[in-house]
Design goal:
The protein is α/β, with parallel strands linked by helices. The protein is 36% helix and 11% strand. The chain has one domain: Rossmann fold (3-Layer(aba) Sandwich), CATH 3.40.50.620. The protein has a five-stranded parallel beta sheet with strand order 3-2-1-4-5, sandwiched between helices.
Length: 231
Amino acid sequence: MDSARRKAVVLLSGGLDSATALAIAQREGFQACAISFRYGQRHAVEIDAARRVAARAGVAQHIIVDFDLRLIGGSALTADLEVPKGRPLAEMGQGIPITYVPARNTIFLSFALGWAEVLDAHDIFLGVNALDYSGYPDCRPEYIAAYEQMANLATKAGVEGQQRLKIHAPLIQLSKAQIIQRGLELGVDYGLTITCYDPAPDGAACGQCDACRLRLKGFAEAGVADPAKYV
């Protein structure tokens, strides 16, 4: 089937990476159906950012799934734990930080997989990255490959051999600067996105958490100004 007629489910957080992954999916000719999650995260302003990005991109559909990972906690993003600030860049990627949300990408992909089955979509896009990132285990290539294998064992389409599901992680081997450069080439408006783990009530980014520092590093290396608002 021609990709120009195929739907793809795109995980859209409202951040820099997912906005870029959405643009790539559309450039590849897919009809993008975006899915976002309100899961009890402290940075819930990202939902508003996801709405802005989806609206500007003109996605075919955009749904927001609600569930509450605060019930299990275990992360500075879903529990009363302090978000690390000012960590040296050399520390990022060394060990798993407290901002890791247990099983988050597995949960997200499971919702996306279910919706993909309903939509008769055989492609899922997500913006995980394994270079400029905070060491999360569910952002690695081997995780994506394992989940794709599992998905094709667990779905009606996969069992009946209609078509294999493909999980696309187009940013996984790119630096943050390369991601930004690619997004700018595709017309992504990064001023609509938010990356911060601990933003102010008005949505201004803190500039000191791991996510902010990696984002700022990426824009600096790309040689362009970050249009996001910082406190």
